[in-house]
Amino acid sequence: MNKSEISLGYQQAVKTGAGGRRWRLIRSNLDMYALLLPGLVFLLLFKYTPMYGILIAFQDFNIFGGIGGSEWVGLAQFEKLIHSSDFMNVLINTLVISLYKIVILFPIPVLIALLLNEVKRMFFKRTIQTVIYLPHFLSWVIISGLFITILSPAGGLVNEIISSFGGHPVSFLTDNQFFRSVIVFTAGWKETGWNAIVFIAAIAGIEQEQYEAAAIDGAGRIRQMISITLPGILPTVVLMFILRIGSLLEAGTEQILTMYNPLVYQTGDVIGTYVYRLGLGQQDYSFSTAVGLFNSVVGFVLVLSGNMLSRKFLNRSIW
Amino acid sequence: MRSKTIGSLCFDAGIYLFLTAMGLITLLPFANVLSKSVSEEWAITSGKVGIFPVGFQLDTMKFVVTSSQFLHSLLISVIVTLVGTLLSLLITAMTAYPLSKRELPGSGILIVMFIFTMMFSGGIIPNYLLIRQLGLINHLGSLILPALINVFNMLVIKSYFESLPESLEESAKLEGARNYTILFRIILPLSAPVLATIGLFYAVSFWNDYFNPMLYINSSNLKPLQLYLQDIVMNADSSSLNRSADDLMNVPAEGVRAATVIASTVPILLVYPFLQKYFIKGVLIGSVKG
Question: Which residues cross the membrane (chain B) (predicted)?
Fold first, then answer.
């Protein structure tokens, strides 16, 4: 008999047979199920009902007919999707932006954690941490407001600096050449400090004796950083990397929605923004649901594979 | 004390320089936009404003924070955040408690069903059609109800409940207390730290949410702050696409945009000390749990 059984209070329940015990557990805990009820209704209504709604990806959905009264078209929407040059474009944009974000932005928090660890002045360390965590708590709307202002071609700070060096002002947010860079930079600006927290905690978990032993062996600080700290946080780094790969198809829908405009659809339109515009703007419900489903399924496979990898190599499940 | 070598000193200097640069890059946009919000319009448009105000004035700021639309949106955001956070905390805890009892028949399958929704969802359009069907378009319920339980938050609370000593529950049980009494009288008071953390998680996500309002709210009467801000930010931006003399006239001025951004940031700044403290705890609960 384990603790949980005692606390549920079924000393007698245990004595009866397995089936009877289960039934008694249910009967004597009806109020537990009452507690669960709102959560269950939430789960079924707001999480699973939309999954049923995915059926419209296989229909030519008509909002007045509903799912019952719309024509079934099999995989026609997916055929359209494969042949759509718009879709290919957003898929490529999604992958490119996402890969840029991973390649450029993933290592920086690790570096910051390593460097912060070397700082012995607590006041300096705390101040830097306080400052660089802050943007995490701001909404994308606020951040795009900040950056639209400083990147503005008319009197924006960055362009004033460019001009003062004799360059021509750049319209960063309407120029396909620069838009992705702005997206990657602002994403880094918002989350880099925050993403370092996990690594800072991992560093704190490394045993101090290792450093002492290394110091006696004459290892310098850089040597210690490379041979002790880095290997010490490697499992965390790998885990975070796997998690990150799991969201490969999420290139930052909310972020891009607050920053893009028709002039940069060519380089900045991603799956999420495309689904939004097509579905809610043009009311092409079935096709946009098909695009969304493609997104969900690939994302699901990525997360599952990531979890498998992490179980296999790190002996640690993501959830 | 071992004496510092020159190499070590250079190493330190490099680190301090790099980290200071990171801090400055973070602060610079704030300094610039804050300065613009209190500068004269001519100074802003002629690009004179760097990190200090030029021609200090508070009229723009006063205009922004006393505008009735701003105040109204602020009120909507406060209502959604307060009601949403309290309701979410209550329902999340009520769900987490039974699920923390592994012996309870059905809890295992429910946990799997919850976790599955972290990895797979119906997507934007089926969600939208559901909200529409429920009659929640242009209703504040659309901002709260679909976000009542965040599965990650629920799992954090669940594992916290699991870590509590069971002796208190046992004795209450022996005295005939019902499960809900135990939850509300014993478990929840003991869980104040985790509830504070998760409460802040919820509050920030309700406060910062603009995706749901964008999908479900189009009546200007019900626009929360983020959506109002988005209108101002985007209007000013899209007009710079085809900038002509006519357009410039009806564009919300740069200064107004800057002041609105700053005014919308202040509430988060006010609670930032708490956020920092509790969020870091929350992040670590989540990651250590693994």
Answer: 9-31, 70-97, 109-131, 182-204, 256-275
